[in-house]
Amino acid sequence: MTQFPTGTPSTTAQRWLHRIAIVLAVGTVLLIAKGGLVHSAGAGLSVPDWPTTYGENMFTFPVEKWTGGIVYEHGHRLLASGIGMLMIVVAVMVWMVDRRRWLRWLSIAALGAVIVQGVLGGITVLMQLPTAVSVSHAMLAQSFMIATMLIAAATARGWKQTKLPAPVSADRGLQKLLLATVVFTFVQILLGAITRHTYSGPAIIDFPLNNGKVIPDFVNFGVAIQFAHRVGAMILSVLIFVQGIRILRNRELAVLRTPALLAMIMVTVQFLLGATVIWTREAIVPNTLHVMGGAMTFAVVFLTYARSVHFYRFSASRESAEHIQFQGIKA
Ligand code: HEM
Ligand code: HEM
Asked: Any idea where the domains of the chain sit in the sequence?
């Protein structure tokens, strides 16, 4: 095992930054689940105003008034505020203890995203859940989550100071595949969000058939968009399994093994959850888990790609450092 030469030991503050960033990333996945619950329970308009809650300050809104759908919607707003505050803490800490420019600007972009996300949440309430705004709110949630994941991953000690068993091979083809999978996951989630916010869940009532056929009759938009989402699920599963098998068969890619394996497990679970959403006629629990599973699939797919880019650069710079050293010895 070789210790990467430029690895710097973490300070206490950097270790705390990493811990808080993990809480932020995990909390964001839970917030996405909570948002999914708001929609699945049909509670989106149970608090009709914003930024106030029934005319009161949202932070002092009395607990005894938390009844019915208000529990979901108001709870979602409070948790979102907590995540927003945690994001401020992480962004400030990144600027104080980490010198990497890209990470500093990523933390600012993530802070901007969470603010826009809160405003989108408010607008969707005030405009009574228009499809475009609700879909944007769902998709920005996923994008923000990815940013928090990257911050958490990049502040880990292992990211800066890694023991690499062997150089990660410069498999450009694989890197393109990993990137294509990330982009395709985003598209798949977008198709899911459009299905959801155009209320097209009941448009196809069975699975694995599609209204009794392999290819359904496209009688309305709902059938078309949900069928596209189902086809997307198959393509995405193939992409994730192809990349996973390529990674597992290549010993040099040991650093990618865990996320690649997790991605295969996650997409299988997500596929089954999608089927359960249909079989249970959109019961709240599987439906909410399907939204959360989408986020977790996206997270592991993205982290596989991010690791591949990072460790490729890492080993490339190590190789060039060793090359320079070797040239020096020759001279
Ligand atoms: C960090 C900030 C936030 C995140 C990450 C977030 C995330 C989400 C997610 C993932 C959903 C589920 C979308 C779906 O089921 O397709 C959702 C739904 C919702 N969120 Fe948020 N949210 C945030 C802030 C807010 C805020 C501040 C409000 C304020 C009103 C809000 C109001 C709503 C409403 C009303 C829904 C249900 C939308 C519908 O039924 O169409 N969100 N949120
Ligand atoms: C395997 C990859 C899959 C991924 C990554 C995925 C992802 C998602 C996500 C993230 C959403 C919610 C989007 C949002 O509003 O935030 C969604 C909705 C939905 N998905 Fe999937 N899905 C997959 C597979 C499937 C399968 C195989 C089916 C059906 C058999 C399915 C059926 C649905 C339906 C019906 C909805 C809308 C639910 C509603 O109306 O509330 N999904 N999907």
From this structure: 10-161, 165-331
